[in-house]
């Protein structure tokens, strides 16, 4: 009878298939250094998973080099904002092979099941990368603390968190907590994959700026990185909790809810000592205009996780709305569509489908906020956008049946679809989608009050 180890757990076809199912596969043409795409891998899924299982169990599996690439930052979509695509406006990515992503995910699932208790990963302060938790839960907790008197907020951001983590120390910590050493080498190799296209990156003049001397941390985009980040900061969570502070952490972004400015100052000092002196991380310096500051949201503009909070209402941060407008606008012209979806043939039907899917997903992410007016504005924008999309595909619209619409903050009026025309496109009004998603779910402010009543009953 074969002894069960963590490696045999990870290498089972069942575990690998579960990992595959949990991977983000929205970009079917995504690939690593080779030409094998997600679609290619799925076409022979069973045989590919069987092969992975055999290689892992025999010790023959090796991680491949990753493909280094850069993408334009979210608020600089295509050429709509940054025509020159200046180098400083790029974000680096290290894209693994599809087979490696499956193994990363299988490792993350198995490791978390064995070490979650040891590092108290499901503590009340941590909200990122955990089943049953997320941004909505973090904002709900923030509202509850605020309504019970914790109205002064220390907000903070760790400088280059993923790049500056001491990965060697972190991997050793995880390995020590595991019940056996069967995946020790595999785990170490998983976070130290080399870049396989250095010459290409150098020719684009981005290697030195974004990739050189960046191997010390853990790679963003690797399915293991979220778990490892929470492990690394677990001691910070514990320190803040035992010190009596109301910490809300989402990956490397965190706030501490306090009753006074003095308490918030003390929270900063303890957080700084724990992060800087014990974890070798750096916070942005404390200051009124810094990413690390102490603020009363009733008096000064405040947002957390792209949610703006004024002490009463929770709304989508205006910049987030603007970024989404820009992303949707990339569907207007053939050139911007090809830049956003380089490996797809986008016809009118595909463009409308992407518009619908993007909008539905975005609303589902923010439905719990006081965003009704912002969703109304999104509907106006889409009605204007649809006119431009139809015209780009050569469909002439009768101007006398169109309406004029102006967006918030703009004097200029734009031609837009009427309500009747919008319905004919098959793309539901965003307000209808919002109401459908909210069906049976109380508004956030009401849920906060209900939970507070439950706590005191």
From TrEMBL:
Q: Does the keyword Transmembrane apply?
A: no
Q: Nucleotidyltransferase among the record's keywords?
A: yes
Which branch of life, at top level? Answer: Bacteria
Q: Which SUPFAM superfamilies match?
A: DNA/RNA polymerases (SSF56672)
Give the gene name: ltrA
- Family per record: Belongs to the bacterial reverse transcriptase family.
Print the keywords alphabetically.
Nucleotidyltransferase, RNA-directed DNA polymerase, Transferase
Every copy of the Reverse transcriptase domain together lies at 52-309
Its protein name is Group II intron reverse transcriptase/maturase
Mind listing the GO molecular function terms for this protein? Answer: RNA-directed DNA polymerase activity
């Amino acid at each position: 009878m074969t002894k069960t180890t963590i490696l045999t757990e990870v290498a089972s076809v069942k575990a690998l298939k579960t990992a595959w199912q949990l991977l983000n596969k929205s970009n079917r043409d995504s690939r690593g250094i080779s030409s094998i795409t997600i679609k290619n891998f799925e076409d022979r899924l069973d045989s590919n998973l069987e092969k992975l299982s055999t290689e892992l169990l025999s010790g023959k599996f090796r991680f491949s080099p990753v493909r280094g690439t850069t993408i334009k930052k979210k608020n600089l979509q295509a050429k709509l904002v940054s025509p020159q695509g200046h180098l400083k406006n790029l974000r680096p990515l290290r894209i693994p092979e599809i087979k490696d992503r499956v193994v990363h995910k299988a490792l993350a699932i198995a490791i978390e099941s064995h070490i979650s208790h040891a590092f108290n990963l499901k503590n009340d302060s941590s909200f990122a990368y955990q089943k049953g938790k997320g941004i909505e839960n973090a904002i709900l907790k923030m509202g509850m603390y605020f309504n019970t008197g914790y109205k002064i907020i220390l907000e903070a951001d760790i400088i280059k968190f993923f790049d500056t983590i001491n990965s060697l120390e972190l991997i050793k910590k995880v390995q020590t907590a595991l019940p056996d050493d069967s995946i020790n080498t595999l785990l170490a190799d998983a976070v130290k994959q080399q870049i396989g296209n250095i010459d290409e990156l150098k020719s684009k003049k981005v290697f030195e700026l974004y990739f050189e001397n960046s191997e010390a941390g853990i790679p963003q985009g690797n399915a293991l990185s979220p778990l490892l980040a929470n492990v690394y900061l677990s001691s910070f969570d514990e320190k803040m909790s035992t010190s009596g502070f109301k910490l809300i952490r989402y990956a490397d972004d965190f706030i501490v809810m306090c009753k006074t400015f003095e308490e918030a100052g003390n929270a900063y000092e303890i957080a700084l000592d724990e992060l800087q002196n014990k974890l070798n991380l750096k916070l942005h310096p404390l200051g009124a205009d810094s990413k690390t500051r102490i603020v009363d949201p009733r008096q000064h503009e405040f947002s957390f996780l792209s949610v703006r909070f004024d002490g009463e209402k929770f709304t989508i941060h205006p910049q987030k709305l603007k970024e989404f407008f820009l992303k949707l606008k990339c569907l207007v012209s053939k050139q911007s569509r090809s830049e956003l979806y380089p490996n797809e043939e986008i016809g009118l039907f595909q463009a409308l489908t992407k518009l619908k899917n993007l909008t539905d997903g975005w609303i589902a992410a923010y439905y719990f906020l006081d965003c009704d007016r912002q969703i109304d504005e999104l509907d106006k924008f889409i009605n204007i956008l649809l006119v431009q999309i139809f015209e780009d595909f050569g469909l002439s619209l009768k101007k006398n049946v169109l309406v004029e619409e102006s967006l918030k903050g703009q004097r200029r009026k734009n031609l837009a679809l009427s309500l009747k025309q919008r319905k004919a496109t098959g793309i539901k009004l965003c307000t209808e989608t919002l109401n459908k998603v909210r069906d049976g779910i109380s508004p956030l402010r009401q849920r906060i009050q209900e939970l507070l009543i439950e706590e005191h009953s």
